[in-house]
Design a protein that fits this description.
Helix 6 runs parallel beside helix 9 and helix 10 runs antiparallel to helix 11. Strand 2, helix 3 and strand 3 form a beta-alpha-beta unit. The longest helix has 36 residues. The protein has 345 residues and is of the alpha/beta class. The protein contains eleven helices and eight strands. Strands 7-5-6-4-1-2-3-8 form an eight-stranded mixed sheet, sandwiched between helices. Bound molecules: uridine-5'-diphosphate and magnesium ion. It is a multi-pass membrane protein. InterPro entries: Glyco_trans_2-like, Glycosyltransferase_2, Nucleotide-diphossugar_trans.
Length: 345
């Protein structure tokens, strides 16, 4: 984490908006979280090598590209293979987390270890086509601080696609900020945005939501999302559930407000009806009101149970935040040592 003295502004955030964006010596860091991706590595490195070939960089005004690979506690050969690649000269640093912290923790780590002028975030499975980064760079040159990928079409498991579709709309509906629809973590960010993100203290990271929250100039870059190039998806259903509930809870307190309102309304309604029952009991000889009372109380209980679920979701996360544990722990940093500098004559 970037530690700033209290009250200090990160110098990067003071760069005036609209500053010259025709630089031809840009540095670019590409953050890629990897978890058990051994089948993907050759394909990934090869494709990145094509998209970020020296002649392309020269054309795009980029002086250097570095990969910031975050190994999220892989249990296969991923970390070893990547370290080998780096020793052979792959321009990358590998941050090995001490265990599997999840995609969001890994992205957070990557952003903390990136320090280029521009930082891109993409998945390791080539579902975020690397060449789209050049479109994002074009958007940056026109003044965008964040260019994020928006999925035009998506391939894969129908149930998952439906789930994602519903999730983005639900979060968009619930959250107090405008969360762009159908966007993942695939993006290119100006250094000022990365600095702003690093300063957010929360430990449960929902990076696409935080990225929307920080503001700045944001534009969507549409792209077609292909199927995973190799290997199995690393997001299990339980990880997706965590992402969804973390996303909602971190971006909005509306479910909590709805739960409060619902339990209040049903509490009042139930009390009112019970008072009526007691007040008019001598005039009643049909059990209908009792049936109604039962329905009301049962419904109230169901609502309360639901409210408890929502309360639990927030209380649990509050507890985790209060403990203040970091979103990830680094076990090892693999980097090619810079070649010894020739002393000036
Ligand atoms: N990933 C990770 N930690 C995890 C799960 C996934 O770092 O616990 C990485 C994974 O290696 C990939 C990216 O997050 O680079 C997206 O994962 P995946 O392709 O499985 O997700 P999906 O395409 O289903 O959203
Ligand atoms: Mg994927």
């Amino acid at each position: 984490r970037l530690d700033l003295p209290p009250g200090a502004q990160a110098p990067e955030t003071l760069v005036p908006p609209g500053a010259a964006r025709d630089a031809t010596d840009l540095t670019l860091d590409i953050v890629i979280p990897v978890f058990n991706e051994e089948e993907m590595l050759d394909l990934l490195v090869e494709r990145l090598g094509q998209v970020f070939a020296p002649e392309v960089l020269a054309r795009q005004g980029v002086a250097s590209v570095r990969l910031v690979l975050v190994d999220d506690g892989s249990r296969d050969a991923t970390a070893r293979l990547l370290a080998e690649r780096i020793r052979q000269g792959l321009p990358a640093r590998l941050i090995r987390l001490s265990r599997n912290f999840g995609h969001q923790g890994a992205v957070c780590a990557g952003l903390d270890f990136a320090d280029a002028d521009l930082v891109a975030v993409m998945d390791a499975d080539l579902q975020d086509p690397p060449e789209v980064v050049w479109e994002m760079l074009a958007a940056w040159r026109q003044g965008a601080d964040v260019a994020f990928g928006r999925r035009r079409r998506r391939q894969g498991n129908v149930l998952k696609r439906l789930g994602y579709w519903g999730f983005y709309r639900l979060v968009g509906f619930l959250s107090e900020i405008d969360l762009p629809l159908d966007t993942g973590d695939f993006c290119l960010m100006d250094r000022s945005v990365v600095t702003a993100l690093r300063r957010l203290p929360e430990n449960l990271r929902f990076s696409r939501g935080l990225r929307a929250w920080v503001g700045f100039q944001q534009v969507a870059v549409p792209f077609d999302r292909p199927a995973r190039a190799a290997g199995e998806p690393k997001y299990t259903w339980s990880k997706l559930y965590r992402l969804a509930t973390d996303g909602i809870a971190s971006m909005s307190t509306r479910p909590l407000q709805a739960a409060q309102l619902a339990s209040f309304l049903f509490g009042v309604l139930t009390l009112l009806f019970l008072f009526l029952l007691v007040g008019f009991s001598q005039h009643l000889d049909v059990p209908r009101p009792f049936l109604f009372a039962y329905v009301l109380i049962a419904t109230g209980n169901a609502v309360l149970a639901f409210c408890l679920y929502i309360l639990g979701a927030y209380v649990g996360r509050t507890y985790l935040e209060v403990k203040g544990r970091p979103p990830y722990l680094v076990m090892e940093l693999v980097e090619r040592r810079a070649p010894p500098q020739k002393p000036h004559v």
